[in-house]
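One example given next:
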Amino acid sequence: MIKNDLIIKALRGESTERTPVWMMRQAGRYLPDYRKLRDKYDFFTRVQTPELATEITLQPVNQIGVDAAILFSDILVVLQAMGLEVQLIENKGPVLPEPIRSKDDLTRVSVPDIEEMLGYVFDAIRLTKMELNNRVPLIGFAGAPWTLLCYMVEGKGSKTFDLVKTFCYTQPELAHRLLQMLTDTTIAYLKQQVKAGADVIQLFDSWGGLLSPDDFEIFSLRYMRQIIQALRNDVPSILFAKGAWGSIPEMVSTGAACIGLDWCIRPEIARKLAGTGITLQGNLDPARLLSPIPELKKEVTKMLNSFGPGSYIANLGHGILPHVPVDHAKAFIDTVKNHVYLKQEKQVLSSL
């Protein structure tokens, strides 16, 4: 039995005594203890060593007081498992020296034996669950097929991902073949994460917002739908597609327990689009954590009141930035934990 199960309750649509809160990329570069490990070990050594991944995963739980741990890993380990070389250059991001651009390149990728290729992830989950000792839930995750395809074809990050769009529009059959391979791999990967002990799964579509609503359905959502449906009877799933809030009703229809939101949509509009039968997560601009703490608290309070109590998990609208001071991150978490909603406050006063 998980002692702090606020996030699980929220994902199930159950009432909670307060709003649960965690942060995307909470186990990372803003923490001094993480930076010490970064200086000693390269990125994929940290990811592929269960003891290090566990230590990093636990840091924000122990130091910031978040209501969930999220496994320290990377979405691109799936591409490594499928046969592609991935380099992670600090302060620059991922690079794939030999991207996929043609049918001939397809011989270099395959749907892998998940346990054989990604066993270190599942070992990290098992070790983390043991170290957490049921304090809070553990969130597992994967990148959405569209986002993985972007890196697979582009070979690096991009503001526009023109190469992958050209690839999809000029070689759609090949694009869909790759997207299905990515989907099959991701389903097997996430199911094994759940088997190892993950309590919740989040699917990240970092580049979904680059697509028009129609193309989002064709190249992204149809594959995320397969993944969500495959996990629906296992654990609650959170679907986060940055910039794709114009497709919120369609994302709700996937069967996900929760829709994550970036900061470019007002909470009231998101709730109107999503309806009342699903949990929402988000959506503070990560840069707001750099504000003076009194201003930060005001912004967080405003966000909380806009979403209102119930069917809501407080979070950032994307990952925490590496130069955020730790006391600002903790101020965000503490403000959420201590928040009393206006209606609740009135009810307390009226009962006195």
Observations:
- The chain is about 50% helix and 10% strand.
